[in-house]
Fold this sequence. Notes:
Blueprint: H1 8-22, E1 32-37, H2 39-43, E2 53-56, E3 68-72, H3 85-88, E4 89-95, E5 100-106, H4 117-130, E6 136-140, H5 143-151, H6 156-166, H7 170-173, E7 178-181, H8 189-199, E8 204-207, E9 211-216, H9 219-239, H10 250-260
Parallel strand pairs: 7-8
Antiparallel strand pairs: 1-3, 1-6, 2-5, 3-4, 4-5, 6-9, 8-9
Helix pairs in contact: 4-8, 5-9, 6-9
Amino acid sequence: MKDILTAPFVVEMVRTTSNMYAHGWDERNGGNISLLLEESSVKEYLDITAVKRTIPTGFEAPALEGKYFLVTGTGKYFKNVEVAPAVNLGIVRLINQGRDAELLWGYEDGGQFTSEFPAHMMSHMARLAVDPKNHVVMHCHPANLLAMTYVHTLDERAFTRTLWQMCTECIVVFPDGVNVLPWMLCGTNEIGEATAEKMNTARLVVWAQHGIYGAGKDLDETFGLIETAEKAAEIYMKIAHLPLVNTITDEQMHQLEGRFSVKAREGYLD
C-alpha cells in the first residue's frame, strides 16, 4: 500500500493550506477545507476497513452516505499542516445517513474535523446536485472581501456587479456571481443550511463580517475563484472613496460573455 503522505490529494491539500495562510486568508485557526475523494483513490493508500474511531456529525446528510472526505481539523492552524499533516488533517467516511463519520486517517492528537463540518457537508450536497464535478468546499477570511461587507450594500446583485466591474476577468471566472449572507452565528446548522441554500445558485457565498465560502471541481479552481473575488474587493476598497471616472460597462461585459463563452447570471446585466 502506498504512503498516504504521497497521495496527490494530500500533497495538494498541504500546498493549498500553506498558500492560503501565506495570503493572509487563514489567521490562527481560521478557515477550513473539505475535499470529496473517490473510494478507489483512498484504497490505494488506506485500508478502508480499518476504522480508528467514529465521530458524531450532529446533522444528517443522506446524499453523502458512504462518501469520503479529506478535511482540515478543528482548532488547527493552516501554517502547521505542512509540518504535521497527520495531526491537522483527517480522512473520514460518512455513515448512518451522515449522522456519523468514520475516521480512517489523521487527527492523530485526538482531534476531529472542523467545527464548520455541517456547513461544508450541506454545501457539498447542494453543489453536487448542481454539478457532480464540484468536489471542494473552501472557507477562509480574505481581508478585502471582509472589509467590503462593512461599507457596501449586501444586496447580491449590487455586490456582484461591483466585483465584476473591478477586474475584466471577474465575470469570466464567476459568471454565476456572488451570494451574500448577513452576519450569522458560525459553527451552527443554521448557517450551514443558509449557506447550502445560497450554493444552489452560486459557487461563492460571502458571510458578512466573517469570510467567504467557495466551491469548485478541485483545490486549484476553488482557490482561484476566491483569489479573483478577493483581488476585485481589494481594488474596490482602494477606490471606493474616490470619484469613479471609468468603469467596465454592461456592454463590455456582454462582449466578454461572447468572447469567453460564459453567461452572466440572469438579470445581473442591463
